[in-house]
From TrEMBL:
Compartments where found: Membrane
The protein's name in its UniProt record: Cytochrome c-type biogenesis protein CcsB
GO terms of molecular function: heme binding
Segments crossing the lipid bilayer: 6-28, 40-61, 67-85, 92-113, 133-154, 184-207, 219-237, 244-266
Coiled coil (residue ranges): none
Any Pfam family matching the protein: Cytochrom_C_asm
Entry-linked PANTHER family: CYTOCHROME B_B6 PROTEIN-RELATED (PTHR30071:SF1), HEME EXPORTER PROTEIN C (PTHR30071)
Membrane topology listed for this record: Multi-pass membrane protein
Encoding gene, per UniProt annotation: ccsB
Gene Ontology cellular component list: plasma membrane
Gene Ontology BP, a term: cytochrome complex assembly
Length: 275
């Protein structure tokens, strides 16, 4: 009997508990709850990784070729990215916003589970690993940027209303959130760039053309241009704070459509229905 499904279910349970713990923590700000929350979330990430390894062994290839596998790997990188972010900046409150979103992605992965299929010859390439990891790493970073942007706008609203209420007491200062958001973008953008370049090289190797304006390619380029514009406007025009946060939210909507909308709704080489 494969250990894959039991590992997935255990991972989902651990993420569910960690999400509940994060919500309790943001309300009560209890140190013991914080420690329990961190431990539960890290345990969930460990079993998440074990689930990916189990799927890899079951399928015989790097598992990022179907909707189920892509959601599984993407949500893992989001969770791993948050652990790195939290260890660097000490922002456990961010987990209260990120954990529910990541739980949704993992639940979607489980509900879309399917048996592994043999890979088409074009996908039997080392480029699958490089392109898949870098592309999803960029998208995971932009997910963290999206969460930070939402938190920024919530905190800004509290300050403008001069109520200094629930969120103001629990969320980081605006300048710190803006700084963190920028640092995340400077990590995610190179990963996305490498993902697009390696995808083009892989396409030329497999199909004899670097670029064919496949819907996924087109929307990946649009997403790249959006984030390039965000970074450029910050460096040249000084667009920070609220403007940057709103643009990052728009950018993440492009990420979601590139990741899910294009693959589910539009025909092309990356369509999950064709895999």
């Amino acid at each position: 009997m494969s250990a894959y499904k039991p590992l997935l279910i255990l991972t989902l349970i651990l993420y569910t508990f960690s999400t509940l713990h994060y919500l309790v923590f943001i309300v009560y700000q209890n140190e013991r709850v914080e420690k329990l929350t961190k431990a539960t979330f890290r345990a969930a990430v460990v079993f998440h990784l074990l689930s990916i390894v189990a799927r890899w062994l079951q399928a015989g290839y790097f598992p990022v070729t179907s909707l189920h596998e892509s959601l599984l790997f993407y949500s893992f990188l989001v969770a791993l990215g948050y652990i790195l972010l939290e260890s660097r900046f000490k922002l456990p409150v961010v987990g209260a916003f990120l954990s529910p979103l990541n739980l949704i992605f993992l639940f979607a992965a489980i509900t879309s589970i399917q048996q592994p299929k043999p890979l088409p010859p074009a996908l039997q390439s080392p480029w699958l690993h490089i392109h898949g990891i870098t592309s999803f790493a960029g998208e995971a970073a932009f997910t963290l940027s999206f969460i930070i942007s939402i938190i920024y706008l919530l905190q800004e609203r509290e300050i403008k209303r001069k109520k200094m209420g629930f969120f103001f007491k629990r969320l980081p200062p605006l300048n710190k959130l803006d700084e963190i958001n920028y640092k995340i973008l400077t990590i995610g953008f190179p990963f996305l760039t490498i993902g697009i370049i390696t995808g083009a090289v892989w396409a030329n190797t497999a199909w004899g053309s670097y670029w064919s304006w496949d819907p996924k390619e087109t929307w990946s380029l649009i997403t790249w241009l959006v984030y390039a514009g965000i970074l450029h406007s910050r460096l040249t025009a000084g667009w920070r704070g609220r403007r940057a946060a709103i643009l990052c939210i728009v950018g993440y909507l492009c990420v979601l459509f590139t990741f899910l909308g294009v693959n589910l709704l539009l025909p092309g080489l990356h369509s999950y229905s064709s895999m």
